[in-house]
């Protein structure tokens, strides 16, 4: 497998798609989380999940330490997909929102902007590390904990660790290594590019205690194109919004095809 192919997973049936989704997973989750989206969205949409090192079949590799490195890998994935002929949507969930944003900026600099960017359940970079940022406070607390303390806390950011006692000790250590690396990477990320020209859609769960309405609406500063902010009820975290709300909402967004025309930053 080439280095470029390592960065992407797809689950298509060979049908030529009309649009492409390049999806960035949240903390502790691999690309396979997006496989159900392919089933729900159907063959007209190519769903491609970005596979980060130190997750799933790349578990033996060292985790990335900079969001910029993930963006470089994502650009390699796009070359593998050869998606230039279809409208491209970048989708980031949780910590994947920063990765999607950085990749979108790289595409802009290459003169190949994405059609749209969807960021779900993630605080925009200017909120991360700001005074009173519970996400960084929570992350710092986690980074100070031992492996066993993280396991005992039942951390929702690490699916699979609820059965840690049944897992191989080495596997648990690798999962925690990747988790800590992602937390550090996101807390240190700074956006240094001009605003995007792509339309930008910010989604969050109305019950999410860490990504509130003001955070979700704060994404508007990262685009000069059309912008929309949306809240989903009954979605307290990125697992529920990704599973229950996003596939259907993405399908409608792709079908509509056009960004809101009036008052785009409302």
Shape: globular
The radius of gyration over CA amounts to 18 Å
Mean pLDDT: 86
Percentage of β-strand residues? 5-15%
**Intertermini distance:** 45 Å
Spell out the helices and strands N to C: HEEHEHEHEHHHEHEH
Which key terms come to mind for this protein?
7-stranded mixed β-sheet, globular, 7 strands, 9 helices
List strands and helices in order, with pairings.
Layout: H1 3-6, E1 8-10, E2 19-24, H2 35-41, E3 45-50, H3 67-81, E4 88-93, H4 96-109, E5 116-120, H5 134-143, H6 147-153, H7 169-187, E6 199-205, H8 213-217, E7 227-232, H9 238-256
Helix pairs in contact: 2-9, 3-4, 5-7
Q: Can you give a write-up of this model?
A:
The chain has 266 residues and is α/β, with parallel strands linked by helices. 38% of the residues lie in helices and 15% in strands. It contains nine helices and seven strands, in the order H-E-E-H-E-H-E-H-E-H-H-H-E-H-E-H. The chain has helices at 3-6, 35-41, 67-81, 96-109, 134-143, 147-153, 169-187, 213-217, 238-256, and strands spanning 8-10, 19-24, 45-50, 88-93, 116-120, 199-205, 227-232. Strands 1-3-2-4-5-6-7 form a seven-stranded mixed β-sheet, with helices on both faces. Strand 6 (199-205), helix 8 and strand 7 form a beta-alpha-beta unit. It is globular and about 45 Å long. The protein starts with a helix and ends in a 10-residue tail after the last helix. The model is unreliable at 258-266 (pLDDT under 50).
């Amino acid at each position: 497998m080439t280095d470029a192919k390592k960065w992407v997973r797809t689950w298509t049936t060979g049908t030529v798609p009309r649009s492409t989704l390049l999806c960035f997973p949240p903390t502790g989750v691999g690309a396979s989380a997006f496989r159900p989206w392919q089933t729900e969205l159907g063959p007209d949409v190519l769903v491609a999940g970005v596979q980060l090192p130190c997750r799933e079949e790349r578990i033996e590799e060292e985790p990335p330490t900079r969001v910029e490195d993930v963006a470089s890998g994502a650009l390699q994935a796009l070359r593998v997909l050869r998606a230039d002929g279809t409208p491209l949507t970048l989708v980031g969930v949780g910590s994947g929102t920063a990765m999607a944003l950085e990749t979108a900026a790289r595409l802009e600099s290459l003169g190949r902007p994405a059609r749209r960017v969807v960021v779900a359940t993630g605080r925009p970079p200017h909120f991360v590390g700001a005074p009173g940022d519970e996400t960084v406070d929570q992350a710092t607390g986690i980074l100070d904990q031992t492996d066993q303390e993280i396991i005992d806390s039942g951390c929702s950011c690490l699916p699979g660790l609820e059965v840690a006692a049944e897992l191989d000790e080495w596997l648990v250590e690798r999962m925690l290594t990747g988790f800590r690396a992602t937390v550090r990477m996101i807390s240190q990320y700074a956006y240094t590019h001009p605003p995007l020209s792509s339309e930008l859609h910010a989604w969050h769960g109305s019950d999410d205690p860490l990504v509130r309405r003001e955070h979700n609406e704060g994404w508007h500063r990262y685009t000069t194109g059309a912008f929309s902010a949306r809240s989903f009820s009954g979605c307290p975290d990125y697992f529920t919004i990704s599973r229950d709300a996003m596939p259907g909402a993405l399908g409608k967004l792709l079908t509509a095809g056009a960004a809101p025309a009036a008052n785009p930053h409302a």
